[in-house]
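REQUEST ID: PR-0412
SUBMITTED BY: lab tech R.K.
PRIORITY: routine
TASK: structure prediction, single protein chain
INPUT:
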Amino acid sequence: MVNKDYRDTFVPKGEVHGLPELRVGDWCRLLLMNRKEQETGKLKGFSAKWSEEIYAVEKKTALRKNAFAFRYDIGLPDTYYRHELLKIHGKKVDTEVPKDTLRTKEVQTGSHGEEAEYNPEWDRSSE
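STATUS: complete
OUTPUT:
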């Protein structure tokens, strides 16, 4: 009777605020940083932070002392928290950058090789 009366009925929408929900069968990438690198911010910029391999979530286990936090099994010896996995939509992903999206130095420089003024059109993706 006590458990029935004092059971918490609040169920949060997502496990980690700002991250999409990850379910069994979803595809994801694995974070390549260890705990210390995550805390110190050692890897900055465009260095590789996510694995190239794509994994499927095989099992989602709730933590004993926190029913709204989970560990995810992706077929490796360890299990991972939600913030260590990057959800991707579908297993097929691009492996090459299309040539149309690359901006060469010729486009960004003037006729005599000097730097051109900033043009906001360079930053816009094709709409």
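NOTES: The chain has a mean pLDDT of 76.
REVIEWED BY: pending
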